[in-house]
Amino acid sequence: MADLAGFDASTVVPSAAFTPIPAGDYKMQIIASAMEPTSNGQGRFLKLELEITEGEHAGRKTFDRLNLENPNQQAVDISKRTLSAICHAVGNLQPRDSVELHFKVMEVKIAVVPRKDRPGEFSNEIKGYKAVGGAAGGGQQQGSSTQQNTGTKSGFTPGNASGGAGGGAPWKRS
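RE: above sequence
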């Protein structure tokens, strides 16, 4: 139980229902990152929180997860290629800490996809990263998961990861 004495909901605008960010290319920056254990405890992933920096959706956030430590080598390889694309996009090819990638604007391709855990609902996927006004960096990725790409049609290097909703192992999906 928690003491809520003094809270008055009539003085606070209620949060709105979640709606995905429309598909498109957005200028975004990483605003937070942390290594977290996988749900099965057999690895760790780099969780990235990204925020749109300009335009109608400025301030909206999305997430990416990079399986950098995992018994599945394919998952690690996909995540390393995604991290390389981010590093190229922000101009830091040898970061010593993920904080060095924070607050550097890059272009991020966002898609809207059906959620696997909630039929009829949708979520966002990150399809790729590139430097603002520049070419994509890094390699291609296969597979699909929440916030991930299966191709590079508009010059974006695919990203992988899940933002929780509709997520899952990129190597287990088609």
